[in-house]
Amino acid sequence: MISLIASDMDGTLLNDKMQVSDGNINAIKAAQDAGIEFIVATGRSRNEALPLMAEGGIKPALITMNGAQVFDQLSNEVINIPIEPATVVAVTDELRASGYYFELMTTAGNYSDSQVNRIQNVADLLVDLNPDTSYKIAVALAAARLELMNINYVDDHYAGIIADPTIKIVKIIAFSTKGLADLEPVKVFCEERGDLIVTSSSSNNIEINHINAQKGIALAAYAKEKGIPMSETMAIGDNLNDYSMIEAAGIGVAMANAVPTITDLANYHTAKNTQDGVAQAIYYAIDLNQAAEKK
Asked: Are 246 and 234 in contact, with CB atoms under 8 Å apart?
């Protein structure tokens, strides 16, 4: 039996237009009608994720920023795991010294110090997750969808945000057009501190969170609160920041466009994000439940 399905967004639930397809929307509603709760588990913030879900008329519970913040279906915050202030200073100093573009995701919103870099990196993400999309089209899509990103722009290299004691920084995301290998020294720097977890949602970024802010930990906590054993959960994803929840779930699902590490980890494989792979996995869960009820 499956009682709870968690799905990543980018490269998973979202298609190459950064939208939830009608096929996926219909499948989510079918799951809900069948008594299965659907929850989004994303590296995005709540303010980024909600508009994309609202376009399809879906308002699920949200595991956001890789598990740093979790919201129930009524938008009540139930988990908040920020990065320690001293660690934020150390990491941002290292990123700045190394010349990387990075963004801060906080309890007061998401912050960038360059709109040009922001558009470029969203476009890079789209191309990375959807290889059939040309870079020119990706830039146009990124610019057109920027209003849904809820990004605040600052020109002080984040000094005011970092110094503000009322703002908690819950995720730092760093980018490199040269790929993950170029970001490896920063990844090592972060992991050697012992209080951080470093994952990735595409080949051009690393995502830095408190070590306890992981999708798998958040999914387990949410399921426990709901009285659902992990054996009755399904988790769907495509990239390294999905690893912990796919490993923890009763059924771990890899998209056809998943990175090899996720493909090898999963015990069920579905279609690409551009082919309603999430819907296929959801209907598989519904079929499992119907078969179990007949026994």
From this structure: no
